[in-house]
Amino acid sequence: MIRVGLGWDLHQFTEGRRLMLGGIEIPSMKGLTGHSDADIVLHSICDALLGAAGKGDIGEHFPNSDEKYRDIESKELLIEVVRILKKDKWRINNVDVMIVIEEPKLEPFKKRMCEFVAGVIGIENERVNIKATTSERVGAIGRGEAAASQAVALIEKK
To answer: For residues 5 and 37, what is the distance between their CA atoms, to the nearest angstrom?
Structure first.
């Protein structure tokens, strides 16, 4: 059995926080707001994987009303999502991500993000693809107020 899932996340920028994307810190004057480290890339991947497996969404598993998730590294959330899938005998085939952000430019960091994600979910680097685009200065993302990430994942039953 093969299934596909879609994930999406968006957070506002704020001063005084690190910018975490794809599990790595990106040099920036601003970071993203959130209950956790606000890594929109890992959050969208979590939702894509959970959706493909029919296991709900990130908010159901890691609610922002639960203090144990305050400031947690999103890597820990992704590790738990992978554990949920493995328990049900799902194998992750590939993940594709699109980050929408005006600044900073992400080209120098995409390879490291792919390697990080692949390592956490236990697949070859070539099975993770991360792209970045801008919103051409349109809307909240274009004004530099927010950033978003969309992910799609393909999983197979063992």
So the answer is: 23
Q: Which two tokens stand for residue 45?
A: 């991947």
Please give the model's pTM, rounded to 2 decimal places.
0.97
Phi-psi region of 45 (alpha: psi -120 to 50; beta: other; left: phi over 0): alpha
Q: What is the pLDDT along the chain (158 residues), one digit of tens a residue?
A: 999 999 999 999 999 999 999 999 999 999 999 999 999 999 999 999 999 999 999 999 999 898 889 889 999 999 999 999 999 999 999 999 999 999 999 999 999 999 999 999 999 999 999 999 999 999 999 999 999 999 999 999 96
- Would you tell me how many other CB atoms lie within 10 Å of the CB of residue 118? 18
Judge contact between 42 and 114, C-beta under 8 A: no
> Are 23 and 42 within 8 A, CB to CB?
yes
Domains and CATH numbers, the chain: 2-157 (3.30.1330.50)
As a whole number of angstroms, the distance between CA 73 and CA 88 comes to 24
Q: Specify whether the CB–CB gap between 127 and 95 falls below 8 A.
A: yes
